[in-house]
Specification:
By secondary structure, this protein is of the alpha+beta class. It folds into two domains: 1-45; 51-197, no CATH class. Helices cover 35% and strands 20% of the residues. A hairpin with a 4-residue loop joins strand 4 (101-109) and strand 5. The protein is elongated.
């Protein structure tokens, strides 16, 4: 076998290998995408009671994109419905903590009350503000049932700032950032209820 034939064979084998790899990746792409959607769904929707919605909230994104609020930024959101009626919204909020950005997922029911909060991303000090990433999170659970007006504006602060809430131990700045982001999101919900849920459920 001469040198030219050897080169041709190597090129052909390489082409066949590349083609087979491409076909395998192309064939598995839908399955991988479906698995990723399932992971995202579990991660984002576990704040909502299972019987509170019957749609696919992640397929109903809200028209929110880097909405600047007084102490945070809304990165996006989703609407949950049951029997065609809005039941809750999920808002992705970003605030600045002690060591960097904190991204929260905030669930608010159609009446403007907080269903729950979880941390999606954070870079706070391990063992202090980093405890924010624990799930479930005892400190974050304290906010469930609160609204933009319950407590009043002055109550949406740490007790050391004459507010209503305790801080996470050793994490004053992180705690303030989260409280302010939650209050921002609840006020935004009240001010844009028609846009977010399509009704004025708690007038």
């Amino acid at each position: 076998m001469n040198r030219t034939s050897s080169v041709v064979i190597v090129v052909l084998l390489a082409s066949v290998g590349i083609g087979a790899t491409y076909l395998a990746q192309h064939a598995s792409a839908p399955r991988i995408a479906a698995e990723q959607r399932l992971i995202d769904s579990r991660n984002l929707l576990d704040l909502l009671p299972p019987d509170s919605y019957d749609n696919q909230p992640l397929e109903q994104p809200l028209n929110l994109d880097n909405v600047a609020l007084p102490n945070s930024t809304l990165l996006g959101g989703y609407r949950a419905t049951r029997a065609g009626q809005p039941s809750a919204v999920l808002l992705r909020s970003q605030a600045v903590g002690y060591a960097g950005s904190i991204e929260l997922l905030i669930a608010i029911d159609a009446n403007g009350k907080l269903l729950g909060v979880k941390t999606l991303r954070q870079s706070e000090t391990p063992g202090l503000g980093g405890k924010l990433a624990d799930w479930p999170n005892t400190w974050l659970q304290v906010f469930s049932g609160k609204s933009a007006t319950e407590p009043a504006d002055s109550g949406w602060a740490l007790k050391k700032d004459q507010g209503q809430f305790d801080q996470m131990a050793g994490a004053t700045i992180t705690s303030r950032a989260v409280i302010n982001a939650l209050h921002d999101s609840l006020r935004y919900f009240d001010e844009h209820e028609q846009q977010l849920v399509g009704s004025s459920a708690h007038e």
